[in-house]
Design goal:
single chain; alpha+beta; 7-stranded antiparallel beta sheet; 4-stranded mixed beta sheet; about 40% helix; about 15% strand
């Protein structure tokens, strides 16, 4: 009741305060100021700019951050993931004053409390009063810690020897890879026996043990564990697919497609690099694999081939200028007047974006997390994309809708290749239509009501 009273008072204080985009950073997702924490029954509506929140700083799509965000989902906590430029932002005096090692991911609480090492961050987020993530008693809590350590310790060298040479810039050694496969089967065999009579690792509910081990095995299951290789480990695969299809996992990881054919090292192939916002002056030197479990250290991007969108004729509409203007001015009418005055239809197009499975959506905060996962996987397109996706409606009756402004006259391959793309309908709109313009302004401004539905939550990608 106290939590409900606090949320009511907070809502009454700020409901008439027209605050948009309380978190402004060119390298971070713009999280909605009204996210609803259904688990804690605590609603933050239109939080003013002075409000701070817990946040994790890292490069995009860091598996070690995934476990922290999933744990936050289970505890109904709002944790902002802020994408930083590795090699630049984490080397500043301000960053090093808080985090002397200069590593990511790191955690900064709304009360100023700081942590580094993803294991400690996940433990801090998961260990909340009333949470089930550490089991029901001291024995189950010890088992949870056992599996968390198991996830950190047993698969580190295997990943380095087997999958890192395939997915990132890492030295390949054929003999070491074969040894890693043998070790992997031995470890997975033991795990398979333990899971033969269990749905989850500890107790009858998801715990931090399941979260930590699932995120550790994610790259294996999506890269090298083809059906023939894991045929003898059906209990592990059943457990893994059960976990990744839980709503709180899915909101962070998105759809997980299991490997159909084992990827192998190809000396002529360009390994995938961690995609981080690049500084304009210099490109960070490529180094260790993404989210190396051994050190929690960042991996900087390797040089990339020129994006086809960069080869398009120069446009008079400067997307970065629009993003800054939008962030620092009222949307209606100021920012929208600027947008229509400067918009270049020969260089950019506007698309209506709708989630295909709105009838399957449940809690508002979970729908918002789904948007966040989509935006996270669009990080590589930040230079060419602006947009807002909103959650309209209420718990168990809501929908995701919005607009994207894209470089070029079609959807780029980068966006189409994003795992979440098939779950959304993209439809190019006529920017000269007054009704379309009015609807775009409502979405970009996060109007209190849109299409007769309450704007409950959302995110702006900029």
């Amino acid at each position: 009741m106290i939590q409900l009273f606090i949320s009511f008072i907070e809502y009454q204080i700020v409901r008439h305060t027209h605050v948009k985009n309380p978190i402004v950073s060119p390298n971070s997702f713009n999280y909605c100021p009204q996210r609803k924490n259904t688990k804690l029954i605590y609603i933050r509506h239109f939080i003013p700019q002075s409000h701070e929140r817990d946040k994790i700083l890292s490069y995009a799509d860091n598996p070690r951050v995934h476990k922290c965000l999933i744990a936050a989902n289970y505890n109904g906590l709002v944790v902002e993931e802020k994408i930083i430029r590795v090699g630049v932002d984490n080397k500043t005096d301000a960053f090093l004053a808080k985090f002397p090692l200069g590593k990511v991911p790191v955690f900064e609480g709304e009360d100023g409390f700081t942590l580094y090492e993803s294991g400690a961050i996940a433990h801090y987020i998961a260990n909340r009063e009333g949470s089930n993530l550490f089991g029901k008693n001291r024995k189950e809590a010890a088992l949870v810690q056992q599996y968390v350590a198991f996830a950190d310790n047993e698969f580190t060298s295997i990943a380095i020897q087997w999958i890192y040479p395939i997915i990132v810039n890492y030295e390949f050694n054929a003999a070491a890879t074969e040894r890693a496969k043998i070790s992997f089967k031995r470890i997975l065999g033991a795990l398979n026996t333990q899971l033969a009579t269990r749905t989850f690792l500890v107790g009858d509910r998801v715990t931090l043990a399941d979260i930590a081990l699932t995120t550790t095995l994610l790259d294996f299951y999506t890269t090298v564990l083809e059906p023939a290789f894991i045929a003898d480990f059906k209990h592990v695969t059943r457990w893994f697919t059960t976990c990744v299809n839980q709503p709180h996992f899915k909101a962070v990881l998105g759809p997980v497609e299991l490997c159909k054919k084992m990827a192998v090292y190809d000396a002529n192939a360009k390994p995938k690099a961690v995609e981080t916002p690049k500084p304009k002056a210099e490109a960070p030197k490529a180094k260790a694999p993404s989210a190396s479990p051994a050190a929690d250290e960042e991996a900087a991007p390797a040089p990339k081939a020129k994006n086809p969108l960069d080869l398009l004729p120069k446009s008079s509409f400067v997307l970065d200028d629009w993003k800054r203007f939008y962030s620092n001015n009222d949307t209606k009418p100021t920012a929208m007047d600027y947008f229509w005055k400067n918009f270049d239809p020969t260089g950019y197009t506007i698309w209506k974006v709708d989630y295909k499975y709105n009838d399957e959506l449940t809690y508002v905060f979970m729908s918002s997390n789904l948007i966040g996962g989509f935006f996270q996987r669009l990080e590589h397109s930040r230079k060419y994309l602006f947009g807002s996706l909103l959650v309209l409606g209420e718990d168990n009756k809501n929908e995701i809708t919005g607009y994207f402004v894209l470089r070029g006259d079609k959807i780029s391959d980068e966006i189409e290749d994003t795992a979440d793309f098939p779950s959304f309908n993209f439809k190019k709109v006529d920017h000269t239509n007054p009704k379309v313009r009015e609807h775009i302004a409502s979405i970009f401004a996060w109007d209190e009501k849109i299409d007769g539905k309450v704007c409950a939550d959302g995110k702006t990608f900029k």
